[in-house]
Amino acid sequence: MTINSGSTHEFFVDMTCEGCSGAVTRVLNKLDVKFDIDLPNKKVFIESDKDTDVLLETLRKTGKTVTYIGPK
C-alpha cells in the first residue's frame, strides 16, 4: 500500500535567525507535514497534500513575511 504524501511546495519566509526557523518548525509541526528549512536562503519546503492557502496561513502565524514561490 502506498500513501500519497502530496507534493512539495516552496515558500519564501523572511527568517533571520534560529529563533525564526524555530517558530516555523513549531507551527508546521502542528500541521503534521514533512518540511525542510533552508535558513541561509530564507526558504521553506513543505511536503503536503494540504491546500497552499492553508500552508501560507500557517506560516504567517509566525509573524514573518511569507511568499508562495510554487511547486518544487
TrEMBL record:
<dbReference type="GO" id="GO:0016531">
    <property type="term" value="F:copper chaperone activity"/>
</dbReference>
<dbReference type="GO" id="GO:0006825">
    <property type="term" value="P:copper ion transport"/>
</dbReference>
<keyword id="KW-0406">Ion transport</keyword>
<keyword id="KW-0186">Copper</keyword>
<dbReference type="Pfam" id="PF00403">
    <property type="entry name" value="HMA"/>
</dbReference>
<dbReference type="InterPro" id="IPR036163">
    <property type="entry name" value="HMA_dom_sf"/>
</dbReference>
<comment type="subunit">
    <text>Homodimer. Interacts with ATP7B. Interacts with ATP7A. Interacts (via dimer form) with SLC31A1 (via C-terminal domain); this interaction improves ATOX1 stability and controls intracellular Cu(I) levels.</text>
</comment>
<keyword id="KW-0143">Chaperone</keyword>
<keyword id="KW-0187">Copper transport</keyword>
<dbReference type="GO" id="GO:0005829">
    <property type="term" value="C:cytosol"/>
</dbReference>
<dbReference type="GO" id="GO:0046872">
    <property type="term" value="F:metal ion binding"/>
</dbReference>
<keyword id="KW-0813">Transport</keyword>
<dbReference type="InterPro" id="IPR051881">
    <property type="entry name" value="Copper_transport_ATOX1-like"/>
</dbReference>
<protein>
    <recommendedName>
        <fullName>Copper transport protein ATOX1</fullName>
    </recommendedName>
</protein>
<dbReference type="InterPro" id="IPR006121">
    <property type="entry name" value="HMA_dom"/>
</dbReference>
<comment type="function">
    <text>Binds and deliver cytosolic copper to the copper ATPase proteins. May be important in cellular antioxidant defense.</text>
</comment>
<keyword id="KW-0479">Metal-binding</keyword>
<comment type="similarity">
    <text>Belongs to the ATX1 family.</text>
</comment>
<feature type="domain" description="HMA">
    <location>
        <begin position="6"/>
        <end position="67"/>
    </location>
</feature>
